[in-house]
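Appendix B, Record 12. Input sequence as logged:
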Amino acid sequence: MRTVPTKPGRSSKDMKRAIIPFKRADPKPLERGQFHTYKLRTTPADPTSPIYELSLPFFEEGSPEEWILFRRGLTAVLKGQNITTGPPSYAVAKTLLRGDALTVFEQAEIARGTQTMPHYEKCLDDVAEHVFPEKAGQIQKRYMRRNIHFSKDYTVKAWVARVKELNGYLKDFPNHNGTATQPLDPDELMDILEYGVPASWRREFTVQGFDPVDQGIRKFVEFCTRLELCVPSGPEPKVESSQTSKAAGKRKAEVSTTSTSSAGGKFYCELHGQNKTHHTKDCFEMKRRAKRAKTTPEDRKITYKDLNAFVNAKVTAALKKAHKERTEKKAKKVTINAFDKFRSLNVDSSSNKESDHNVNALAEASDHDSDSDNSRVPSDDSDSDDE
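Logged structural output:
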């Protein structure tokens, strides 16, 4: 699709502006005195041909599309009544025009002079320039190239028909710099239709080898009608960030839990179990208990720092208790081993003799040490004699 880069100073709103938007305006209800009914023949030159009625509303001011439809209706009236000359055409136009439109038409009539059919058409062109904004043809073509996309509000046939209708309106737009506005050529119109459908449909074009430009609009409509029944035309999935995806997953889990717990029209509460009135998050008793638990004597909230200090204190106390128990157990084991060794001692006669011998030797050694000590320390009597 051919695109034109946005020029500096041109807003996105201007890029989406349409002279005739894709969506039709709601028809205005016609009341008595707001239209004129003409009796026309299917074959104007044949006085015996069937007659039909056409009600054409008066035109005072309106949208460009309303003007185009009015002018086409005016042409149908002249043709149905077999009016081919200037003065009757001017008379019919003045009957149906009102307000500013009639003023512009009469001024153009004075400027043109003679009431001829070519002058009549020029006068209607002047009214069209009064209704349309400047560069209307360029703005409308830009809108059609960039802002026409398929919508589920329409069928494929209705959507394509509306695009073709908008393209047909272009020949009724006012001239620009003396040049008539031309409709889009078939290739460009096909380009708009191809890139106006969803991307999933365009992938099917590639997979099945379907080239819309070669096949034409009729085959394009048939192919897209089949895709409309088989391939979804929703928007492309968006790439979510990690935080967005996590939040979406959490919401999905909550919805899944709620839907699972409420199967069969029941609810689930952690306090009351399966019930028919509420979930856990809506339980008044749970809310009351949670509120009471949060209200401490110090009227403050427990922080992570407080929690860590509490856990550390508990762990330290447990470790000290375990260490104390291991120490006491080890001391008790040593006492038991000593008692066992004492119980294993022999008390027969040979051992008694040996023990007595050892005790006597120990006593003699003790007495010898005592005598040697006494020989080294002088007595008080010897000291007095020396004096």
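Residues 137-230 form one domain.
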